[in-house]
Structures are given as structure tokens and as C-alpha cells.
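Curious: explain these C-alpha cells?
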Amino acid sequence: MKKFILLLVLGFLFSLKVQAAIRETENTKNEAVSQSQGETTAQRAVSRLRRTNDRSVLLVHEDHEDDENAENGVVQWSQRCFLLKEGNKFIKQEGDCKSRHSPCSTFKIAISLMGYNEGLLIDEFHPEIPFSEAYPAYIEAWKKPHNPSLWVKNSCVWYSQVLTRKLGMKKFKKYVREFKYGNKDVSGDKGLDNGLTESWLSSSLLISPEEQLIFLQKLLDNKLPVSLKAHTMTRNILFIEELVDGWKLYGKTGSGVILNKDGTENPDRQIGWFIGWIEKANRKIVFSYYIQDGDKQDTYAGPRAKQELIANLSKYVNNIFNEN
């Protein structure tokens, strides 16, 4: 009898150990799945960039990468340009500003000028175009009607493509050529005949930070080959926020992923743009800011470029904000 009771106790203890081992295995599995899902979500967020208006093409020479890892939350760049200019005077010139990259969402500025000049766009809030399930909508905010102001704010790709389709390739190509916009190549992806809707999206159209600055200055000076209304309305929808001492900030971000030399995607590496100007009364200071990540980041490069640029404004032109 004693032996029987002893066997029962031992069996019960063994059962407890087995159950604990099973629970530990399941927890380990769940943790691994959770981590995997987290990584997949982050990867999807970055990969989605290439399917939106915030994609980019850049032929990368891998030996130019920054080998140092980001420390203390500071992003390491493999390439960067910062240009800040008032009139004919450069306040800041830094980095490689001559290399051309995809304009990404900053090309909306050019599309806006075309749209207003052709009468496709009326004012800041018209036309409002309803969303269609046939349109690309990788971002939830795009799944609703858009007007010109919302188009720029949400960086909505389908609104851009509705406008360029209405323009047609002949006019679209003519505007890009007359704007002297970067390499002026709107052929699109080789063999796909998609230049009218894809040429600025990790494709054929490229522009340098220097050329972006020149283009912006022409926009401010009403020197582009479009109507005064097109200049004015485009500037209006680029307004972002009021800064200190009466200064106003205007601009457009752009984000994209890098392509390697062989044309394959590198979703772990991003580029970011923030171009625009600050103004107060009759003073206007234009900027062109470009970054290329040196390692994987989980946030979009365009908004990061915007944050960095605003920080640099306070650093380099603090005396301007204090002037009357």
C-alpha cells in the first residue's frame, strides 16, 4: 500500500513537471511569434514606401555606407545635403548636393503647378475627388475624398495620378521639360510604359537638392512657365505652420527606399526629403534637405528629415528669428 501511494505521489510530481515544461515551450513559441509579427509589421511599413508616392530610386555604391551603428538614438547617414539660402546668399551649404535622387512626394509641387495652370485644380479646396476602390490606398488616410490641400497634407498618391492622367503624357512631358526639372526623364520603368503615373516613383525622374532649391526659388519669384494663379495656389497649399516671431513654414516632405545598383530593393535603407521655405513679410529663405539612412530605421525618412531641418533652422538662423 505504501508503495502504491508513493508511486501516485511520484506520478503526480512528474505530471506537474511535464505541464510546466509544456507551458514554458508555449511561452517561448508565443514570444518568438510576437517578435516575428512585430518585425513583419515594421518591415511592411518600410516596404510599403515603394508602392506609394513616397518611393525613391538611388543607385547605391555599398562601399560608401557608414559602417558605424547609430548610437543613443542618433541616426547615422550614408549621405546628406543641407542647403539654406536667402536671395543670392547661402546661409548653409553642407554635404553632397549635386547627386540626383527620386523626388518622391516633393514632385507634388510640380504636379500642383501643372494642375492649376490647366484648370484641373481650382483653389485650395476644389475639386474634391471621391475615393474609388480602384485607386491605390496603402495608407488608411487615403481612403476618403481628397481636395488639393488634403492631397498635399496626406501625400495621397491616387490624387496625383488622377491629375497626371487628365493631363496626358504630351502635356505632362512638356511641363517637366519647361520646368527644367532634374533630368527631365518621365519615361518610367523600362518596358512598362508607366511614366505618366510612375516616373517620379522610384523610376526614371531624378533631381538633385541643388536643383530642388532652384525650382523652389522660381516658384517664389513667379518665374515658372505657368500662370500667376498656379504659382499662388501652389504656394498656399504648401503652408505647414506658424513659427516664432511671425515666421511661416512652407514645404513638402518625401520618403523612399533605396534601390541597389542591380535594381533590387533595399527596404532596410531609406531616403528622405524636406524642401520648402520660411517667410516673414518680404523675406523668404529657401531650403533643400536630403538624407539617406546608413542603417535600418523603423520610421519614415521624410518626417525625420523635416524634424532635423526645423532643428537646423533654429541652430543656423536663430539670429534671423530674433530680427524684426
Observations:
- Residues 1-51 form one domain.
